[in-house]
Amino acid sequence: MLFQRIKPIDQIIATAEKKSLTRQLGAFQLTMLGIGAIIGTGIFVLTAEAGQKAGPGMMIAFVIAAVVCAFAALAYAELASMVPVAGSAYTYTYGVLGEGVAWVVGWALVLEYTIAASTVCVGWAGYVNGLLSHAGFGLPQFLQVGPMDGGSFNLLACLIGLAITFLLVVGTSKSAKVNTVLVLIKIVALTVFIFVALPAVKDQNFTPFVPNGWGSPMGGIGVLGAAASIVFAYIGFDAISTAAEETKNPNRNIPIALIGSLSVCTIYYLLVSYGAVGAVGAQPMLGPDGVALEPGTPAFAAACQGSQALVCSKEALAHVVRLLDHNTMAAFIAFAAGIALPSVILTMTYGQTRIFFTMSRDGLLPPSLAKIHPRYHTPHVITLITGTFVSLFGALFPVGILADITNSGTLFAFIMVAVGVLILRRTQPERPRPFRTPLPWLICPLAVIGCLLLFLNLSKEAKITFFAWGAIGLVVYFLYGYRKSHLARGVEAD
Question: In angstroms, rounded to a whole number, what is the distance separating the alpha carbons of residues 244 and 409?
Answer without folding.
Answer: 20
